[in-house]
Amino acid sequence: MEKESIIVLAKTYPELSKKYGPLVCVAGVNEYGELRRLYPIPYKIWIKNEYKEIRFKKWDIIEAELTRPQSDPRKESRKVTDWRKIKIKGHIKDWSLRLYIINELLEKDIESIKASDSSLGVIKPSIVEDFLIKERQKIRDPGEIEVLEKMDSTTTLLAYFEKKDQFLLPDVWDKDVKIEKIPWIGHKFYCKNPLCKGHEMMVIDWEAQELFRKYRMIAPVKEKLFNWMLKERKLYFVIGNTWRWKKSFMIISLFYPPKKIQPISPLQPVFKKRAAQREITDYMRRGSFDQNRR
Questions:
Q1: CB-based contacts of 147: which residues, under 8 Å, 6+ apart?
Q2: I need a labelling partner for 212 at 20 to 30 A (CA). Which of 11, 71, 131, 157 fits?
Q3: Could you say which DSSP state residue 181 is in?
Q4: Which of 173, 1, 207 is nearest to 85 (CA)?
C-alpha cells in the first residue's frame, strides 16, 4: 500500500459494476507525473450529504491510500483501500498551470499510447471535424458497447440487487440510485500521426453526458462541445480504455483552456522523480494551489 496525492483529471458518467455497484471512473496524475486510474469510487459520494467532505471535482488534489489490484493488469490502475478516507488537499484553479501540467503529460498521438501499452493518455487532436450522436445498432466497437450496457437505465440497482450477485457489496448498493441510459455521443477527429485515418471516439466525460441529459438532443450539446470550444478554446482529450478491450479507447475527459492562455512553469516543480525519493513538493503535499475549489 502507498499513499499518493492525485490531481483529478477525469470523472466519467457513473456505471454499474458487477462487484461494487454504481461507480465513477476517476483518473488523474500523481506527484511523480504518473497517470492513475482509481477504483472503487462509489457514485453515492456525489449524492449523499454524509460524504460531501470528500466530494471532489476535476483539478482537485486528493490524497488516498492505494494498492495494486489483483484483477486489473493495466499499469495505471490502483485500488483505493478505503474511499471514505479520501482527503481533499487543494485545488488547481489557474488555467496556465493546468495547461503546463497537461503539456507535461501530452502524447503525440493515439498510436503512441497504444504502442506503449498504456491504458490512459492525453492528446491534442490536430483536427476536430465533428461532434455527433450514433444509434446503438450502428456501434461496432466492443469496448463502447460494454460501457453503454453498464450505463443502461433498464437495469435499476434494485433489480441488480435482486440478482443476488455474490460480489455486490451491500455498503455500495442503494435502492434509490438509478443509472440512466446514455447515448453514444462523441468527437470525430484526427490525431497528429501523419498516417491517421481519423477517429470517432465516444465521450463519457460526466460533464458532457450531463449536458446531453439536460437537453435530450444533440444540437445544443454540439454547440457547446464543438462550435464554442473550437472558437473560444483549445481542446485536449484525456482518453482511456477498458480492461477487457485494451484497444478500445474512449474520451474520459475534456480539457479546454481559453485560447489566449499559455502554460506557465511554476517556481517549484509540480512533479518529482522517483529516484530522488525527496519530499513531495509543496504543491502536492500542502495543497498550496488555490483552495477555493469550484
A1: 15, 202, 204, 242, 250
A2: 157
A3: P
A4: 1
Whether the ω angle into residue 125 lies within 30 degrees of 0, i.e. cis, is no
Pair 3, 80: CB distance under 8 Å = no
CB neighbour class for 78 (10 Å; exposed up to 12, middle 13-18, buried from 19): buried
3-state secondary structure of 36: strand
Per residue in 195-249, pLDDT (tens digit) is 999 999 999 999 999 899 888 899 999 999 999 999 999 999 999 998 788 888 9
Beta pairing, strands 87-91 & 127-134: unpaired
Using CA atoms, how far apart are residues 89 and 11, in angstroms rounded to an integer? Answer: 18
pLDDT in tens, 8-63: 999 998 877 666 667 899 999 999 999 999 988 998 898 889 999 999 999 999 99
Residue with grid cell 478516507, as numbered in its chain: 85
Extract the C-alpha cell encoding 40: 472503487
C-alpha 293/C-alpha 275 separation (Å) is 32
Secondary structure of residue 152 in the 3-state scheme: coil
Which residues, listed in sequence order, are joined to residue 11 by a DSSP beta bridge?
26
Q: What is the pTM of this model?
A: 0.84
In the chain, where the domains are located: 2-285
Neighbouring residues of 171: CB distance < 8 A, sequence distance ≥ 6: none
C-alpha cell at 79: 485500488
C-alpha cell of residue 195:
498516417
